[in-house]
Specification:
The protein has 376 residues and is α+β, with helices and mostly antiparallel strands. The chain has 11 helices and 6 strands. The protein binds zinc ion.
């Protein structure tokens, strides 16, 4: 989006970063899940921008590349290991291209997703589609290919060991950790002083595992249907820790709304120092504000974040959905729906919103990536 500073430019949908480019704890693209936020956006855009906004142009092309990659339906189910995966590969004798291995993948997917794939050891469209469903559900990169991370996630979800595995396979990837309140001493940042390093603290989950029931099951069923229909799905946020929402909110208030850093109320779990001082120990308001602005940039905030988002309760998901041609998808009642209308995006296709609703996953129209249990 070249014109970030016009009202239209900033309300318009901006594509997400691909998951692999945003795994650094930063917010890929915060959704706007309250009407009030849109109003705030309007008033904010009327004054001169006090800080540079992140350039979205690079994100757009990155998202486009990710969509192309994810739509490569002809891709094989196995792949060569990346350099990071080589050490892991070294320890095992797993041949991910073997029929035995693909049979194991098919049996595992049947078991874990309740599917009825033929365990024939042939990586066909249905198998790859099921792999994508599984990857989506577990917050993995969605490419329809079983590599070490997807394999580890299958095992962690309850699959048996794959053929050729050594008895105690390491598990290299954990998409989500316990949603229990974080304690300050277990994840203490480098400095109590506010600043961009806080953005890595209290990360937002991208796994549907972190969602609250019954919304979690509804989302998983909808994602399964989308995956089987061949849609490209990129989940950018599910549950957001309340601590993260609190940090975002007050960073915004100091940086953009003129709140005094000394006026922020204390938080029981967050030992952050918003007030910066100079060499003489006097309050340095400019440094305090600059640190809050760094956080606003690090979180990629474009509007005031709500303190009471449904994401905090695990009742909302942000995702981009796209497809090519007609989308033939089962709705929540099992009926096959053919969506020929455009645009072919989850943000704007009203027919897809209708299908989502049959699963109990409701679209908030004013907020491009945001779906929730109530539509708010
Ligand atoms: Zn959202």
């Amino acid at each position: 989006m070249a014109n970030n500073d016009s009202i239209a430019g900033r309300i318009r949908f901006t594509p997400m970063l691909p998951a692999e480019a945003s795994g650094n704890g930063m917010e890929p693209q915060l959704c706007r899940d309250r009407l009030r936020a849109a109003q705030r956006l309007r008033s904010a855009s009327l004054r001169p921008a006090s800080s540079p906004r992140p350039d979205r142009t690079g994100q757009q092309s990155a998202a486009g590349a990710a969509a192309l990659r994810h739509s490569a339906l002809a891709a094989p189910i196995y792949k060569l290991p990346t350099i990071q995966e080589l050490e892991f590969e070294w320890e095992s004798e797993i041949d991910r291209g073997s029929r035995d291995y693909i049979k194991w993948v098919q049996r595992s997917l049947n078991q874990l997703l309740g599917l009825n794939l033929a365990a024939d050891g042939i990586s066909g469209t249905m198998t790859r589609s099921a792999v994508r469903s599984f990857q989506t559900r577990y917050g993995l990169a969605v490419d329809g290919i079983v590599g070490p991370q997807t394999e580890a996630a299958l095992i962690r979800a309850g699959a048996s060991q794959p053929p050729g595995a050594s008895p105690s396979l390491p598990v290299p990837y954990t998409p989500w950790q316990s949603p229990a309140p974080s304690l300050p001493d277990s994840s203490a940042p480098a400095s109590k002083l506010s600043g961009e390093h806080w953005v890595q603290q209290f990360p937002t989950s991208k796994s549907t595992d972190s969602l609250a029931e019954p919304f979690r099951s509804k989302v998983n069923r909808f994602l399964d249907a989308l995956g089987r229909a061949g849609a490209n799905i990129e989940i950018t946020a599910t549950r957001r820790p309340a601590e993260r929402a609190w940090l975002m909110h007050y960073a915004w208030m100091i940086a953009e709304e003129g709140l005094s850093p000394a006026a922020v109320p204390p938080h029981p779990n967050i030992d952050i120092q918003w007030v910066h001082t100079d060499a003489s120990g006097n309050v340095d308001l400019a440094a305090s504000r600059a640190a809050a602005e760094d956080m606003v940039r690090g979180y990629k905030l474009q509007y005031e974040p709500a303190l009471d988002s449904l994401h905090i309760d695990g009742r909302a998901i942000d995702m981009t959905i796209s497809w090519i041609g007609n989308l033939r998808i089962r709705d929540g009642k099992g009926a096959l729906v053919t969506i020929a209308s455009t645009p072919r995006t989850g943000s704007d296709n009203r027919e897809l919103h209708g299908v989502g609703a049959t699963y109990g996953v409701a679209k908030l129209l004013s907020d491009p990536p945001h779906w929730s249990d109530t539509g708010h």
